[in-house]
């Protein structure tokens, strides 16, 4: 009698993990891109590859175009900013608002040129969509403050939230233009956000000085290096 049984199917092989050197090279490229683009927003892939200690051929194995590289930098930046800002809560909406400004500055200060390029550049609509959770959080803080009588009530909350966002971004523009210090930018972004929200300059300064959680040393240290963040890499 003929044996018609079949042997068990070979189990599907799990996807191969990226080679360690490929993953490390990709992160080296991204870290080099942050550094080079902050010195020269027009830096080429070849310049970035050289800064990463890699050949031109190596970088094209990971990113076929400069736009593709910048897109990944944007995506990682969005994720980092969202993770830092969306958890912010405080019983006093004024303090919460200042914290949003302070944490935002902490995340973008060392990458101010590439951050400005992301917000103002050709991918600004994609970046804006990615930052929507941050905008929702800001609007919630504004509504909290308006409801509690802590923030101005003469402007509709959604409009006020957009104006506060614009004020914070203007600090980034000024930081790129005038190369302001980390300490100066930290205080400035809180002052302009609070002033836009309805506080006088004296009230804003007094609130900042009286709130330990707003002190420069109280802010979490941002990591602009990408070595702690893994992503798909190519061999």
TrEMBL record:
PROSITE patterns given in the database record: HTH_TETR_2 (PS50977)
Residue ranges annotated for the HTH tetR-type domain, each copy included: 23-81
The keyword DNA-binding is annotated on this UniProt entry: yes
Domain of life: Bacteria
Statement: the UniProt record of this protein carries the keyword NAD: no
Spans traversing the lipid bilayer: none
Protein name according to UniProt: Transcriptional regulator, TetR family
DNA-binding positions: 44-63
Keywords: DNA-binding, Transcription, Transcription regulation
UniProt region (Disordered), positions on chain: 1-22
Gene source species: Agreia bicolorata
Molecular function terms from GO: DNA-binding transcription factor activity; transcription cis-regulatory region binding
């Amino acid at each position: 009698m003929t044996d018609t049984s079949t042997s068990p199917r070979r189990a599907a092989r799990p996807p191969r993990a990226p080679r360690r050197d490929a993953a490390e090279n990709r992160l080296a490229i991204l870290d080099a891109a942050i550094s080079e683009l902050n010195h020269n927003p027009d830096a080429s892939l070849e310049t970035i590859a050289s800064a990463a200690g890699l050949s031109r051929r190596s970088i094209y194995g990971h990113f076929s175009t400069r736009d593709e590289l910048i897109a990944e930098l944007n995506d990682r930046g969005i994720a980092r900013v969202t993770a830092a800002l969306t958890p912010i809560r405080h019983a006093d909406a004024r303090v919460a608002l200042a914290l949003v400004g302070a944490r935002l500055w902490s995340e973008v200060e060392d990458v101010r040129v590439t951050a400005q390029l992301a917000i103002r550049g050709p991918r600004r609509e994609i970046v804006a969509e990615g930052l929507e959770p941050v905008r929702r959080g800001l609007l919630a803080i504004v509504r909290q403050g308006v409801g509690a009588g802590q923030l101005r009530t003469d402007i509709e909350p959604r409009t006020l939230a957009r104006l506060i966002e614009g004020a914070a971004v203007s600090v980034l523009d000024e930081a790129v233009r005038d190369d302001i210090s980390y300490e100066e930018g930290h205080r400035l972004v809180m002052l302009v956000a609070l002033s836009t929200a309805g506080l006088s300059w004296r009230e804003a300064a007094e609130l900042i000085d009286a709130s330990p959680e707003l002190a420069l040393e109280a802010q979490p240290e941002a990591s602009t290096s990408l070595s702690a963040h893994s992503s798909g890499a190519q061999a």
